[in-house]
Amino acid sequence: MTSRFGATLLGALAILIWSTSVGLTRELAERLGVLTSSALTYGLAGLIGCAILAARGRLRGLLRLPRAYLLGCGGLFVAYLVSFCLAIGLAGSGARVVEVGLVNYLWPSLTLALSVPLLGLRARLWLLPGILLASLGIFVSANADRPLDLDAFVSPLAAFAAHASDDPVPYLLALIAAVTWSLYSNLSRRLAGGAAESAVPVFLLASGLFLLMLRAFFSETARWSPLSFAMLSYMTLLPALAAYACWEYAMRNGRVAIVAALSYCTPLFSTLLLCALQGIPMTLTLWVGCLLIIGGAVICKLGVVETDPANKRNTGVA
Hints:
Layout: H1 3-32, H2 34-55, H3 67-91, H4 94-104, H5 107-119, E1 122-123, H6 127-142, H7 150-166, H8 169-191, H9 200-215, H10 226-253, H11 256-262, H12 265-278, H13 284-302, E2 304-305
Antiparallel strand pairs: 1-2
């Protein structure tokens, strides 16, 4: 197994882990509050990650990382998590949470698009149709409970427009989250300068502390139970600590176009998992959404030409 192939597999693993966390994130937020659950999840993940680095004698090595990476990517990482958590927290109703999530899912498209100017990848004409097709698939999958007709597209779009115009702040925050995460995903590769160390644990800890400070300005009631502790433990160790570390390693060392294209499948996998666990039948709308996402992801990969990593290692092109 080559290092690039292994790194790409880690990116796929991160996507699978995140797919299992969608339902748990909502459930934990309902039990503890969005800011409380997020602050604990990312703060504890950062503490554990930093403790592991310290035990291995690698915590000091983070100081040797380029300052542009530490400050620039660190700022983008914190901005992403804070913006996304605030967007979910301010969305209110379940329908708006879904809509805010759809805005946030612009990040795979933005990651692919930004990889062209930031990492020097070459775009083909196939890229734009692939992005549009995969994005349409995400939209269709999010409305899988509706029949597959024109109303399945018009009604959700009308509701989205009404909600966004009535209270645009959550939607703007979700857009900021999508932009900052796509920038982070590309710039972490460009600015790290080929270093082996990763500052993800520090970024997680900083995000947790910032969210904890924001928590003081919002009223949240936490309902603790053994199940709450179990969910918090899972979210801390896997979707937060492990998945974010795997994602950065994949974006810095793997096949960027493949990893970014696969990320379209995050909402697809989460929906399929929910159907399997709760015995929800697969509707025709969901099947069509699946095909659109998969087809769009394949076209996106074909729409980006990756160059030889030996020639552009410092800019992260692979």
